Amino acid sequence: MRTESTGPGAFRIEFDSPGELAAVERASLAVGGLLLPSSEALPSDTRLALTLRVAGGPEVAVAARVVAALPGALALELEGTPAEIVGKLLAPPVSAAAAAAPESSESSEAAAEAPAASGSLWEQLRRMTPPQRMLLAPKADRLARALLVQDSDPQVLFALLKNPRLSLDEVLRVAKSSFLSFQAAELILKTNPWFANLDVRVALIRNPKLPTPFALRILPTLPDNEVRAIAKGAATSMPLKQAALKRIVGS
Question: Of 32, 58, 173, 207, most Cβ neighbours within 10 A?
């Protein structure tokens, strides 16, 4: 696979053969993602314009979003149905009308639920690499999310928080996870509907993985009974316990 930057936020990617495309499809395209070799560490959610091509075949324009910057590569989430993208790359030239046909909502939903199409969903997720699960998480359906929320990879949990269909109960499970990362905690704190929920705030402040500065930001928003529990021993750090004691004494 050869990659070339063609401008700001634009890349051209050429696969040497249909066989190489098939290998990439198994590794990441099948779940709507792509690992783009790059030394450029772009921030998450950066929008990219990709031009994909198999040697000797037609060019296919695909919009993408950066999910995460990995060592020597960018994990991308592609827009569109994976099967449709691969089909266009391998198909002979088609008429302009056929090429412009809009993607149906049914095919989009089918793509989002593709992991459950054959075999056990648990087995499919277990066989995926962490980057593959990370690419799947932002578009996973309810059944896949129920498994991904138990993932031991902090980057997968962070990617899961970017799923627009995530429920408050699922956010709560991420907040309680022993694999909570700084980035995931920060995103929860910055998302007002999540931070407004008392159960989510309590789960975060009781999680030993939560950075102390975040815990100190949450403490003033908690009711007195929760603050007393922290002061009596539920604190995850000495600065947090001292701040809780100070509030109780001052009240």
Answer: 32
